[in-house]
Amino acid sequence: MAKELNLWHVAIPTLENHIVLCPRNERYVMALAEVYGRLHEEDYLAGLRRSITESEETRTIVTFGQHGKWEEINQLFAQYINFYAEQEGLYAHLDRHQSLPGKYSRQLPR
Questions:
Q1: Domain span at residue 82?
Q2: Which one has a higher pLDDT value, 88 or 60?
Q3: Total-model pTM
Q4: Which residues are CB-contacts of 94 (< 8 A; sequence separation ≥ 6)?
Q5: For 2-56, how does the pLDDT look when each residue is reduced to its tens digit (9 = 90+)?
Q6: Exposed, middle or buried, 32 (CB in 10 Å: 0-12/13-18/19+)?
Q7: In this structure, is residue 109 part of a structural domain?
Q8: Does some domain include residue 104?
Q9: Radius of gyration, CA atoms only, the chain
Q10: Per the domain annotation, does 103 fall within a domain?
Q11: Integer Cα distance of 63 and 66 in angstroms
Q12: 3: helix, coil or strand?
Protein backbone atom coordinates (compact mmCIF):
# COMPACT_ATOMS: atom_id res chain seq x y z
CA MET A 1 0.00 0.00 0.00
CA ALA A 2 2.76 2.43 0.94
CA LYS A 3 4.84 1.67 -2.16
CA GLU A 4 2.22 1.22 -4.83
CA LEU A 5 -0.32 3.88 -3.86
CA ASN A 6 2.07 6.39 -2.26
CA LEU A 7 0.23 6.08 1.04
CA TRP A 8 3.30 5.95 3.26
CA HIS A 9 1.72 8.49 5.63
CA VAL A 10 -1.06 5.96 6.32
CA ALA A 11 1.09 2.83 6.29
CA ILE A 12 3.76 4.04 8.74
CA PRO A 13 1.47 4.65 11.76
CA THR A 14 -0.38 1.41 11.04
CA LEU A 15 2.85 -0.62 10.91
CA GLU A 16 4.23 1.13 14.00
CA ASN A 17 1.06 0.23 15.94
CA HIS A 18 1.31 -3.38 14.80
CA ILE A 19 4.93 -3.52 15.93
CA VAL A 20 3.96 -2.19 19.36
CA LEU A 21 1.37 -4.96 19.65
CA CYS A 22 3.54 -7.71 18.08
CA PRO A 23 7.19 -6.63 18.42
CA ARG A 24 8.58 -10.00 17.25
CA ASN A 25 6.54 -10.18 14.04
CA GLU A 26 9.23 -10.04 11.38
CA ARG A 27 6.74 -9.26 8.62
CA TYR A 28 5.72 -5.93 10.15
CA VAL A 29 9.29 -5.00 11.06
CA MET A 30 10.60 -5.71 7.56
CA ALA A 31 7.72 -3.82 5.93
CA LEU A 32 8.31 -0.76 8.11
CA ALA A 33 12.07 -0.95 7.52
CA GLU A 34 11.45 -1.02 3.76
CA VAL A 35 9.19 2.06 3.92
CA TYR A 36 11.72 3.94 6.06
CA GLY A 37 14.50 2.93 3.66
CA ARG A 38 12.60 4.08 0.57
CA LEU A 39 11.91 7.42 2.26
CA HIS A 40 15.60 7.71 3.24
CA GLU A 41 14.64 8.01 6.90
CA GLU A 42 17.92 6.68 8.27
CA ASP A 43 17.29 7.89 11.82
CA TYR A 44 13.93 6.13 12.00
CA LEU A 45 15.49 3.01 10.51
CA ALA A 46 18.25 3.06 13.13
CA GLY A 47 15.65 3.56 15.86
CA LEU A 48 13.68 0.60 14.55
CA ARG A 49 16.81 -1.58 14.57
CA ARG A 50 17.60 -0.43 18.10
CA SER A 51 14.09 -1.12 19.35
CA ILE A 52 13.77 -4.67 17.99
CA THR A 53 17.13 -6.05 19.05
CA GLU A 54 17.54 -7.85 22.34
CA SER A 55 21.31 -7.38 22.52
CA GLU A 56 22.64 -4.35 24.37
CA GLU A 57 25.86 -4.63 22.34
CA THR A 58 23.96 -4.36 19.05
CA ARG A 59 21.94 -1.39 20.30
CA THR A 60 25.16 0.40 21.26
CA ILE A 61 26.76 -0.27 17.88
CA VAL A 62 23.65 0.89 15.99
CA THR A 63 23.66 4.11 18.03
CA PHE A 64 27.33 4.76 17.32
CA GLY A 65 26.75 4.05 13.62
CA GLN A 66 23.90 6.52 13.56
CA HIS A 67 26.25 9.20 14.83
CA GLY A 68 29.15 8.21 12.56
CA LYS A 69 31.48 7.06 15.34
CA TRP A 70 33.30 4.43 13.27
CA GLU A 71 36.42 4.16 15.44
CA GLU A 72 34.29 3.45 18.51
CA ILE A 73 32.38 0.81 16.54
CA ASN A 74 35.62 -0.91 15.51
CA GLN A 75 36.85 -0.89 19.11
CA LEU A 76 33.55 -2.32 20.37
CA PHE A 77 33.55 -5.04 17.72
CA ALA A 78 37.10 -6.03 18.74
CA GLN A 79 36.09 -6.10 22.42
CA TYR A 80 32.98 -8.18 21.74
CA ILE A 81 34.83 -10.62 19.50
CA ASN A 82 37.54 -11.13 22.10
CA PHE A 83 35.02 -11.45 24.94
CA TYR A 84 32.87 -14.04 23.18
CA ALA A 85 35.90 -15.91 21.82
CA GLU A 86 37.18 -16.28 25.38
CA GLN A 87 33.71 -17.30 26.61
CA GLU A 88 33.45 -20.01 23.96
CA GLY A 89 36.98 -21.28 24.53
CA LEU A 90 38.15 -20.35 21.03
CA TYR A 91 41.59 -19.27 22.18
CA ALA A 92 42.18 -22.54 24.01
CA HIS A 93 41.11 -24.43 20.90
CA LEU A 94 43.46 -22.37 18.72
CA ASP A 95 46.34 -22.92 21.14
CA ARG A 96 45.82 -26.70 21.05
CA HIS A 97 45.82 -26.78 17.24
CA GLN A 98 48.49 -24.16 16.66
CA SER A 99 50.99 -26.69 15.34
CA LEU A 100 48.78 -27.63 12.38
CA PRO A 101 50.28 -26.00 9.25
CA GLY A 102 48.24 -23.12 7.92
CA LYS A 103 44.98 -24.14 9.53
CA TYR A 104 44.98 -21.38 12.13
CA SER A 105 47.67 -19.12 10.74
CA ARG A 106 45.53 -16.02 11.36
CA GLN A 107 44.59 -15.93 15.02
CA LEU A 108 42.52 -13.33 16.79
CA PRO A 109 44.60 -10.77 18.71
CA ARG A 110 44.55 -11.12 22.48
A1: 55-98
A2: 60
A3: 0.59
A4: 104, 107, 108
A5: 666 677 788 899 999 988 898 888 899 999 999 999 999 988 988 888 888 888 8
A6: buried
A7: no
A8: no
A9: 20
A10: no
A11: 5
A12: coil
